Every structure is written in C-alpha cells, then in structure tokens.
Amino acid sequence: MDFKLVSDYAPMGDQPAAIERLVADMRAGIPAATLHGVTGSGKTFTMANVIAQLNRPVLVLSHNKTLAAQLYSEFKSFFPENAVEYFVSYYDYYQPEAYIPSTDTYIEKDLAINAEIDRMRLSATYSLLSGRRDVIVVASVSCIYGIGNPADFHSTTIQLKVGGVMAMKHLMYRLVEILYTRVEGDLEPSTFRVKGDTITVRSSIGNHCYRITFFDNEIEDITLIDANTGQRIDSLEQVNLYPANLFVPSKARIEQAVLNIEADLEKQIDFFEREGREVEAKRIEQRVNYDLEMIKELGYCSGIENYSRYFDGRSPGMRPFCLLDYFPEDALFIIDESHVSVPQVRGMFGGDRSRKENLVEYGFRLPAARDNRPLRFEEFEALQGQTIYVSATPASYELARSEDSVVEQFIRPTGIIDPALKVCDSTHQIDRLMEDIEDCVSRGEKMIVTTISKRMCEEVSAYLEKMGVRSRYIHSDLDTLERVQIIEDMHADLFDVLCGVNLLREGIDLPEVSQVSIFDADKNGYLRNYTAMTQVAGRAARHARGRVVLYGTTCTEAMRRTVEDSNRRRERQIRYNIENGIMPRQAKRNSAQPSPLLNIEGDKGVNTNVMYDTATPSVNMVADTSVQYDLSTNIDALIEQARNDMERAAKSLDFLAAARYRDKMYALQEIKLEHSQNKQ
C-alpha cells in the first residue's frame, strides 16, 4: 500500500522547492541531506510530503519522548490510512543496576514498565516484519538499545490457517512458549482462553481478538471478534500470532545459552581466584547460579538482558540487535532536531559502558553484560539508510555528511519574517527592559527574558513583580509538569513576562511572545553560543512583530554570526513577501486547549496551593515552595490514585502529565514514610 497524505493545505513558501529537492536527492541515491528550516516554517509538513512521494519505510528519530509523541500525532493526522507507529522507552521509571566502589554501594535495578508503550513497541516491530511498505516509526534514541533477534521473531511466530493440521493442545503449548498467559475471565493483551473445542486469543498488541475453532486436529474456523464485546467482525482464512515480548528465544536457543553461561561462569570464577579475590569469586558464583536456576525453571530471570548475547547467539563484542535491524535496506531515516539528537546518540554508549565495567569488575555480572548495550556511534552510522537531518541550526556533522545537499527552508507559510535582532549595552539593561515591557504590555503581547543562572532568573522575576509587572520564572528546579503549566498560564494571559534560563526546548509553541531579551549575551558558553542564541531567538519567530534584544558589553563571534545569519534570512523573507504580495499574518498555536490531564485546581483529597493567584502578586523561590497534604485522608489511596493517573496519562501519550503524577506519587510516598517514622 502506498502512503496517502491527507491535509487541508498545500505546500507554500519554500516548501515546494524543498520537497522537490529532497525527493530528487533521495531518488538519486545521495546518502544524506539536511533540511535547514527556521522555526515555524513547516518542516514536519515538508517531511510528510517527502515520505508520501518516496513511498519507503521511514524511521523518524527524536531526542525525547515528548517531542516523539508530538511528531507521532502529527504524522498520524497526515497518514490516517497508513501504519504510523511509536517506539520509545517503555519505562515509567527506571533505576539501572550499578555499583559504586568508593562507598561499596550496590544499587539494585528498579523499574516500572508501561504496558501501553510496550504494546506500541510490539506493534511497531510487527508492522515492519509484516512486509508492509507504508510504515512510519517515530522513535526516541532508545531505538539503538538491544532488543530481540528479528530471526527469532519469525521463528516463534505462530501461523494459523483454516484447514491446517494442528492439535489444539499443541497450540496451547506454543502460545505459552511465546509468553501468552491462559486465563479464565476477561481477555487482556497476550492472553488466551479455552472453552470446549475453541481457543480465543487476544493478540499482544491488544487490538485484535481471534476465536480459533478446532474439529479434531484440524483448524475449522478463524473469526476476528471485538476484544471487549466478543461480537463477530469478520471470518479469516489465516492469521499470524506474534510473541508477547520483543525477546522470545526458541527452546533450543535457551538450552544452548545455559551451557554457554555455565562455561563462562567457570572462567570468571577461575579468574577471580587466580587474582586472590575470593569475595568477587563467591559473589559471581552465587548470583549467576541463581539466575540459571530461574532461567531453567521459568525461562527468564531478573536482569536477563545481561545474558542477551547468549540468547541472541552473538560472539563477544558483537553489537546487539536493535530496532534498526527490523527495517529494510532502502528505509529512509529522518533525524529531527539533529543538532541535539545526533550528539545524544553519540553519547549513549560511553555512559552505559562505564556503569557496566564496575559491575563486571566487582563480580556482580559476567563480562557478557558489557554486550547488553546501546550501539556505538559508528555502528549506528553503518545501519543508517539514506538520511535527512532536520534542524533550524544544523551542526557541522550533518552539514559535512550532506555535502552539497543542504536544503534551506526560510520562508514561512504565514509570511512572518525572522525577528529583528538588536545588540544593546548591558550597562542600563534593566531600565531598557522595563521600557520594552511597558511597550509589549500596552499592545497585549508577551515577553521572554533569559539569564545564565537560576538565581538571576528568580531575582529578575522578583524585581519585576515588585515593579508591578506580572512575571513568572521557569527553570529545571521546577517540577516537570509545573513548567508546562507555566506555559499554559502564559497562553491564558495570567502573566506577561517569562524569565528563564534554558528555553531551548525545540517545538515550544509561544506565538504570543513578541520579544526575547537575552541578558549576558556576550558570555561564552553553552547557553550563549550560536546554536543556543538562534534557538532562543526562534521563540519570537511566530509573532508578526517579533524582535530580539542581545545585552552585552562586547560583541562576541557567536553574537555576530547570529545577527548576520538572521539578517540574511530576513532579507530573503522580505523580498519573497514583496514579490508575492504577502502580508505576514499572526501564527496560531498548534493546540488551543491545554492538556486535559493537567489538573490545575488540584486533585480531590489533596490540599494543593493554587499555582498562581493574580489577586496577590508575589514570587516564591523554589526552595520556599511546598505542597501540603491532608494526612487525615487515606494517604495510600492518594498514592494509588496518583499511580493510576500516571498510567492513564502515559497511555494517552501525555508524558509530561505522566511525569507530574509520578512526582506527586513520590512526594506522597516520602510523606507517608516520614509520618510513619515520626510515629515510631
């Protein structure tokens, strides 16, 4: 099936030329291209058009789960009839196993798996293995971590066909082997129920339920039914039942893996004993033998991923299988916000390896644990198909790989030009700032002020409040969802000036902001380099009167380059508008409604302070804020409610809301622990 793009609007501005050039370059076999598109130029819509014309499986790589969810929703709306899948880390919470030698501290692995995200990961692999060509997988960087061997997936898939010969009991055994569970009541994903000569199976992706009827040792009928009501939907001639997990080795592979683990255990014990390290020798013997007993009895153990090399049949040092192995050779890779995503991929291996080294060195894991890892960057490059890097500030790596295939997309469909950049002396920056704020507020516009420290951010906000300006601050010490709520309150006109430190989060949608003021723009460093200042300036790029003020005592190279590039884009945009008779029009939010899972007024049973009270302008520092809980209420019920809200939010792909409920759950747990200790 081909991709079918559904949209109410057509490409405009630079989009038609960018689409034509990218499609031509990909068809010509060029390894990589870069889409250099400014904020608000419709880069996602451009990529949707490229995908529709190329008709190849696509991996869209994003650097975090929230932006991946945003891209997933957008591509879902563009391609409602095609397979748009979502593949991110399925942990709501994850504390990796670690050992700290300096304090002799062992940290056990702790995690909470999100069943809905696990289902979506399975759905993504099924779509790829089905042979479909109209597949888009939106993934986070977790896609470079090890998962099961694609060959094992094929070998463990159960293929059923009407008229096929198979004993009913044999099918039940096969279902258990691929980690399905027999139940007597309602069917959940990856479960089956037996009644008479009929087996009803709910697939691991949860959307399909099959009723398989036997006559003796022959499959007489296969019916697709509604998973909730049991009503018949359709009759099928055949169906494939895929494993309930991305890691399901065959029985023969498990038996061979156990033998290999036992052999390596003996070698490691001998090594420690020769070194005179009896504690480590005893530790590794006990831990691995316990794991082996679990594997023999149940087929798995806690931390089984540390033995993945044995189950995959890989040799020492060989890279793990990952999602990229499930794509065909002609797959198209799109790396969104590549200036952030590429360095993130590059840094994954080193951090993982340093933790594993301590576990191996001190006898907590066999050396094979090192091979349960993310891809090295060179391994990732080797698996890449043709790639399109997408960024408003592409780095030297992407530009070097793209060579002459760098496509600029500077014209916005709205006709809005880049904000004007102005450099001002920082000697009287507060006085100048107050004048600009008065000007903005008088026109009903908003302003962003960025600083280089959290303390300065809070103090500037406090000063503005004292001067009668409706101001708030935002930085990393605030709760994840509290930061989202602050943005929503700006949209709701609860304040006029937002003070921040790092407002580089790509994709942030603030069309109300007409001015960005950057304090200490002449300071060299991460927050004041060319990429950072261009991204921050982009926060004013959705307003028709957007402008940016850079405060400093000198003009650094980063400032000069930022201003020169902005002027070059502005000149091109103005010329295009004049030639085509376009009048810039104000951009609108992608979503006019706040997240439905943001509970602004507080949850039932919890006495939360209203975040903002417009009647009493005051600014609290982060260290002074607190949430009071009513301990007369059953705190266990509150903890359970927060957990349920977290899971509900994650199921709806609202990971920011899920993070808020998670933080609330942890706070309640700490209060419960403190309360019980005080009783003692």
How would you describe the overall organization of this protein?
The longest helix is centred in the last third of the chain and has 25 residues, at 655-679. 40% of the residues lie in helices and 18% in strands. α18 runs antiparallel to α19 (655-679). It contains 19 helices and 25 strands. By secondary structure, the chain is an alpha/beta fold. The chain has a seven-stranded parallel beta sheet. It starts with 14 loop residues before the first helix and ends with a helix.
Strand order of the largest sheet: 3-8-2-17-18-1-19
First-to-last CA distance: 67 Å
H/I helix tally:
19
Unreliable segments (pLDDT under 50, ≥5 consecutive)? 591-629
What would the average pLDDT be, to the nearest integer?
84
* Proportion of residues in helical segments: 40-55%
Q: How large is the radius of gyration? A: 28 Å
* Principal-axis shape: globular
Main β-sheet, in a few words?
7 strands, parallel
β-sheet strand percentage? 15-25%
Q: Kindly state the number of beta strands.
A: 25
Which structural class do you get from the secondary structure elements? alpha/beta
